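Hi support team,

I've been running sequence recovery on a batch of backbones for a student project. Most finish fine, but this one hangs at about 90% for roughly twenty minutes before it completes. I'm not sure whether the input is malformed or the queue is just slow. I've pasted the structure tokens below so you can try to reproduce it. Let me know if you need the job ID as well.

Thanks,
M.K.
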């Protein structure tokens, strides 16, 4: 059986029967998006790896409670989001890193970046300016309270709709809109110095 051809709901049914290959396929579909979300929230690669792993432990242990009327991705992101917010509340993680963004490039990626810059038609100066602006935005997002950070990350970095964010965060739609509005207001204040 080719598990990659199954949709999420069918794959969950098979995984519930205990098939290891179905679990591996679920992991392969959602491992990167979950890690990306958690890493953007906690801003610590090692902690994000632990939280992503814990997310899948909980997902696999709770597959019987998954309600197929919801998107599987929303359910998985809800678990990841809750773990990340709990982590931030417990640890009161310093949101600014002396090493910059958790997505900062490694030396191995520098060659690819140079090629990308050339392909995008940016001058090196434009690239540096855009990267610097991205760093300011990234740091400003990192300073938001966990709920605002989660909402803004899901909306603008992961591309989720307001309804999907409400499902992931397990809050009413109005609360999501409030979080995003307040997050945008705070970001506007934090970044105002860049446009002066």
């Amino acid at each position: 059986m080719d598990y990659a051809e199954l949709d999420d709901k069918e794959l969950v049914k098979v995984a519930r029967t205990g098939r290891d290959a179905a679990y591996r396929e679920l992991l392969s579909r959602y491992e990167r998006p979950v890690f990306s979300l958690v890493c953007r929230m906690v801003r610590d690669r090692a902690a994000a790896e632990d939280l992503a792993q814990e997310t899948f432990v909980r997902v696999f242990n709770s597959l019987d409670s998954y309600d197929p009327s919801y998107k599987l991705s929303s359910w998985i992101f809800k678990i990841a989001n809750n773990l990340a917010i709990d982590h931030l509340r417990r640890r009161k993680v310093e949101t600014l890193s002396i090493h910059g963004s958790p997505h900062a490039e490694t030396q191995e990626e520098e060659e690819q970046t140079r090629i990308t810059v050339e392909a995008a038609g940016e001058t090196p100066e434009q690239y540096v300016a855009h990267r610097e602006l991205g760093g300011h935005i990234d740091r400003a997002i990192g300073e938001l309270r966990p709920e605002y950070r989660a909402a803004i990350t899901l909306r603008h970095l992961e591309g989720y709709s307001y309804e999907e964010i409400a499902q992931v965060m397990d809050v009413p739609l109005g609360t999501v809109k409030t979080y995003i509005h307040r997050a945008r207001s705070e970001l506007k204040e934090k970044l105002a110095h860049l446009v002066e």
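--
Follow-up from support: It reproduced on our side and the slowdown came from queue contention, not your input. Residues 20-42 form the longest helix (23 residues). No action needed from you.
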